[in-house]
Amino acid sequence: MLLRKLLFYLNFGLVIHTVICLKDTVEVPRFEDSLSNLTVSVGREAIFTCVVNELGSYRVAWLRVDTQTILTIATHVITKNHRIAVNHSDRRVWFLHIHDVRQSDRGWYMCQLNTDPMKSQTAYLDVVVPPDILDYPTSSDQVAREGANITLRCAAHGVPTPNVVWRRESGDLLPTTKFSDLQNHSISGCELQMIKISRLHMGAYLCIASNGVPPSVSKRVTLVVHFPPIMTIQNQLIGALQGDSVTLECHSEAFPKSINYWTINGHIISQSDTRFEITAIEKGYEVVMKLKIKRVSRGNFGTYTCISKNSLGDTDGTIKLYPISGQYEDKQYSEINDFEENPDVSELEALKRSLAPKSTQMNLVLLLTALVILAEIYM
Ligand SMILES: *[C@@H]1O[C@H](CO)[C@@H](O)[C@H](O)[C@H]1NC(C)=O
Ligand SMILES: *[C@@H]1O[C@H](CO)[C@@H](O)[C@H](O)[C@H]1NC(C)=O
Ligand SMILES: *[C@@H]1O[C@H](CO)[C@@H](O)[C@H](O)[C@H]1NC(C)=O
Ligand SMILES: *[C@@H]1O[C@H](CO)[C@@H](O)[C@H](O)[C@H]1NC(C)=O
Questions:
Q1: DSSP-derived 3-state class of residue 1
Q2: In the CATH hierarchy, which top-level class contains the domain 134-227?
Q3: Which atom of ligand 4 lies at the shortest distance from residue 165's CA?
Q4: Ig-like domain location, by residue (predicted)?
Q5: Where does 2-129 sit in CATH, by number?
Q6: pLDDT tens by residue, 293-328
Q7: Ligand 2 centre from 49 Cα, in Å?
């Protein structure tokens, strides 16, 4: 209907024009180029450009094809849409401005001349929307027990439909279910499924949505994995001379963070006990517990226990500190000390370990070993 009305309007103009211009041999207006399609981000300005040569006193109108709406005629804006404007340069180059483009503006537009027959050209306005990640359907930070199955979700919209990719903030490989993805630093898809998560999966995950319309967006989801403490000890038997300084070491892993402390022969060692130096070096869920005995005395020998507790459980490990001094002469101590630096020390340690509880036997073996080594050197 509107279009017909428009044609009527333009033809009316045409009639007048024809009357006026009949005297000259009439120059016929023609388009210089075809109208170009536009792709515009929502909120920006779209400008169609229609170039007409020899317009004379004909008029240029802009129309919205899909809705059959007349937008402008010559320099007049006909539509009530305030986001529409028209301007021209020398009546040759005609611009249709659409400010603050909305998705509803997507469609076909026409530049029309009121010639007889009417001349027109059309072009398409595509409205694109940068990606956005929807808060509600997208996973928030997760806390789970080790061994659980976890699915992280990311919901994004935009035009065109965005691609969603998951990756770890650390850049590490992703833990996933599908064998084919094992080598991937990122996987595409809205869902990141993780079967039987472990402490190694703890950390930040990024969901990144992109659709070619800048800017891309991402959301960070942290995965916290809870597990009871475990303790590992490298050296469970340590021999020391009286007067030595010795450091006992335990490695604990726990999350939430554990409370860590030491006991000797069942008594808690106080942090303020000046005979000891207690340190705990934390790195993520790992803790290196160190107990330094500044100067070993007779009373320091015995069983040390390192203990780790969190809300999910507790664990401990023991280290036995035994004397390698006592019945020896000072000279012999220094000999043994020299051998401690010998690469064969591991053999010596192994012997110590297997015989540790029986200290008299152990001393005998140590003495023998020392003698054997001495013999090797002097022969
Ligand atoms: C018409 O709009 C175009 C595009 O914004 C601009 O370059 C041009 O200067 C304007 N012309 C006039 C006469 O306002
Ligand atoms: C303009 O866009 C329409 C709709 O997407 C498409 O069919 C047409 O081929 C495009 N024309 C040009 C010249 O790109
Ligand atoms: C986790 O998923 C695996 C494989 O789908 C299933 O066998 C297992 O029972 C699930 N575990 C839990 C705790 O739901
Ligand atoms: C995994 O990586 C390969 C090669 O890097 C790629 O072709 C494949 O599409 C990726 N798989 C997923 C699910 O992203």
A1: coil
A2: mainly beta
A3: 14
A4: 29-126, 131-222, 228-325
A5: 2.60.40.10
A6: 999 998 999 999 999 999 999 999 999 999 985 554
A7: 16
